[in-house]
Amino acid sequence: MKAMILAAGRGERMGELTRDIPKPLIIAKGKPLIQWHLEKLSDTGFEDIVINVCYLPEIIKDFVGDGSRWNLNVTYSEENPILETAGGIKKALPLLGKEPFSVINADIFSNFDYAKLKLIELNNSSDGHLVLVKNPEHNQAGDFGLLDNDCLAANSDILYTFSGIAVYHPKFFNGIESGIKMQLLPLLKSAISKSLIKGELFKGFWSDIGTPERLEIINKRD
């Protein structure tokens, strides 16, 4: 299975921290965020990684290189302008191939075991599998419900937060054109309404590092 790391965004809410470096290179617990993902992917048997870049792309490419120091083969999908999540993944499909692939947001920090991603099988009745987490303070309303059959629901008594970790089948993106700027949520809502997206609830540690305050909490964590 190939994996894609979403690293194109600027991270404007990080303020001065992303003025001169892209958000994936912000230091968390002694390492750039993206390095944590690369190490975990390598340690769990992934080999081929696609990284999309847009804001200060050369800095990311200079740091990661071809991925060989992590025993990875890294290729880049460059965007200008930024295409948002769905648009960015669609543009990268020629690099990701025809089989299901993992997608991970560069700006999250968790102890989720990436080896589990390789065990997820998407059959003809499933276009994607999302890892959900309990709602953090900044997203108390949640995003999606999780039904007994592991299908996601747009409306449910209990809603969880999408972690930014998922597996998709390329066909999930068939309905949009390459090069089009598009967020992921409209595609997800459409597929969820047809019971085409499944998921799981991860109860371990997870954080979306969207603000300096959340980064500080991570850096203070034992």
For the structure shown, list the relevant keywords:
two-stranded antiparallel ribbon, 13 strands, single chain, alpha/beta, globular, seven-stranded mixed β-sheet, 222 residues
Give the secondary structure arrangement, pairings included.
Elements: E1 3-6, E2 27-28, E3 31-32, H1 33-43, E4 48-53, H2 57-64, E5 73-78, H3 84-96, E6 101-105, E7 108-110, E8 128-133, E9 145-146, E10 152-153, E11 161-168, H4 185-193, E12 197-202, E13 206-208, H5 212-220
Brief account:
The chain has 222 residues and is an alpha/beta fold. It has helices at residues 33-43, 57-64, 84-96, 185-193, 212-220; strands at 3-6, 27-28, 31-32, 48-53, 73-78, 101-105, 108-110, 128-133, 145-146, 152-153, 161-168, 197-202, 206-208. Helix 2 (57-64) links the parallel strand 4 and strand 5.
Outline the structure in words.
- The strands form 4 sheets. A 7-stranded mixed beta sheet has the order 5-4-1-6-11-8-12. A two-stranded antiparallel sheet has the order 2-3. The protein has a two-stranded antiparallel sheet with strand order 7-13.
- With 222 residues, the protein is α/β, with parallel strands linked by helices.
- 23% of the residues lie in helices and 25% in strands.
- It contains 5 helices and 13 strands.
- The protein is globular, with a radius of gyration of 17 Å.
- β2 and β3 form a beta hairpin.
- The model has no long low-confidence stretch (mean pLDDT 97).
